[in-house]
Amino acid sequence: MRTTIGIDGNDPLKGQSYRFALRIVKLCRWLQEECNEYILSKQLLRSGTAIGALVHEAEFAQSRSDFLNKLYIALKEANETKYWLYLLYDSALINDKMFQSIHPDIQSLLKILVSSTKTLKEQVKH
Hints:
Number of helices: 4
Number of strands: 0
Pfam families: 23S_rRNA_IVP
CATH topology: de novo design (two linked rop proteins)
Helix content: over 70%
CATH architecture: Up-down Bundle
InterPro entries: 23S_rRNA-intervening_sequence, 23S_rRNA_IVS_sf
Radius of gyration: 15 Å
Protein name: Four helix bundle protein
Low-confidence stretches: none
Distance between the termini: 49 Å
Organism: Hydrogenimonas cancrithermarum
Largest sheet: none
């Protein structure tokens, strides 16, 4: 069995966003192979994997403002990902079980990113 090497156990947001990106990759692969769906799956793949990439990129931000900006962009990508998941569900490309499995993950990421950006925004002001 393969082991996951890209998860940082010291940072919950980095770990959660990475695990979510892995789920998105697998879901998109399934959509392409089983449903021959390429347009929406590519949109979902782009936005769903960008969340973790931006969180990881923020680690080496040039300033606190740059860090906040990267997290804001990750938040926007998470919101877009939620949109694509809703669209896939409402168009019956993913079933209820699949949607109910992944929906809590995106909701959790959104919650963490909203909280983090609010906190950081206050710190940047001072």
